[in-house]
TrEMBL record:
<dbReference type="Pfam" id="PF00929">
    <property type="entry name" value="RNase_T"/>
</dbReference>
<dbReference type="GO" id="GO:0003676">
    <property type="term" value="F:nucleic acid binding"/>
</dbReference>
<dbReference type="InterPro" id="IPR013520">
    <property type="entry name" value="Ribonucl_H"/>
</dbReference>
<dbReference type="GO" id="GO:0008408">
    <property type="term" value="F:3'-5' exonuclease activity"/>
</dbReference>
<keyword id="KW-0378">Hydrolase</keyword>
<dbReference type="GO" id="GO:0005829">
    <property type="term" value="C:cytosol"/>
</dbReference>
<keyword id="KW-0540">Nuclease</keyword>
<protein>
    <submittedName>
        <fullName>3'-5' exonuclease</fullName>
    </submittedName>
</protein>
<keyword id="KW-0269">Exonuclease</keyword>
<dbReference type="InterPro" id="IPR012337">
    <property type="entry name" value="RNaseH-like_sf"/>
</dbReference>
<dbReference type="InterPro" id="IPR036397">
    <property type="entry name" value="RNaseH_sf"/>
</dbReference>
<feature type="domain" description="Exonuclease">
    <location>
        <begin position="3"/>
        <end position="166"/>
    </location>
</feature>
Length: 178
């Protein structure tokens, strides 16, 4: 079975080019094997909407590492498995924009899975909002908290794989070229 790097990001503002928190949940051999969470100092302004949604403010991240500092620690994880997120186009684009904004070279592209797309294929008549899927499966969720969201997404991925989802049918590619 593949190694999945399930992640979720929170953003400080509507630009979606910086990260204020990241949660990572690693799935290996059909089980959650590792979890990681960090606040991130985005070195930019916070919009009221994002603060209200995530509870993360400039004061919350004043002592947190910046993305370039954190990337040194998490890049090996991101490079060693299939990336997965719930509504992955958002998280993948934020990651891409953050890497570009900080002029961090990573790799030309990354393959990823989206649990929303998987769910729509497996269960077309259900809501695919994270909180609704978690409610359906009885998965605990503290919504808009990157650690909880990534853990919940990993649990959803495992449920979808148990339901017969074929990973190869859902692989997408995100370009990280400038």
């Amino acid at each position: 079975m593949a190694r999945f790097i399930v992640f979720d990001v929170e953003t400080p503002n509507r630009k979606n080019n910086r990260i204020s928190a990241i949660g990572i949940t690693v799935v290996e051999e059909g089980k959650i094997s590792k979890e990681f969470y960090s606040l991130v100092n985005p070195e930019t302004n916070f919009d009221y909407f994002n603060v209200k949604l995530t509870g993360i403010s400039k004061a919350s991240v004043k002592d947190a590492p910046t993305f370039p500092e954190l990337w040194q620690q998490i890049e090996p994880l991101f490079s060693d498995g299939m990336l997965v997120a719930h509504n992955a186009s958002f998280d993948m684009n934020v990651l891409k924009n953050c890497l570009l904004d900080y002029e961090i070279d990573w790799k030309p592209y990354a393959r990823y899975l989206c649990t929303v797309k998987m769910g729509r294929s497996l269960f077309p008549d259900r809501s695919h909002k994270l909180n609704m899927v978690c409610e359906h499966f009885g998965i605990p969720l503290n919504h808009h908290r990157a650690d909880s969201d990534s853990r919940a997404c990993a649990e959803i991925l495992l449920r979808y794989l148990e339901a017969g989802a074929e990973v190869k049918d859902f692989i997408r590619t995100c370009s990280f070229k400038k």
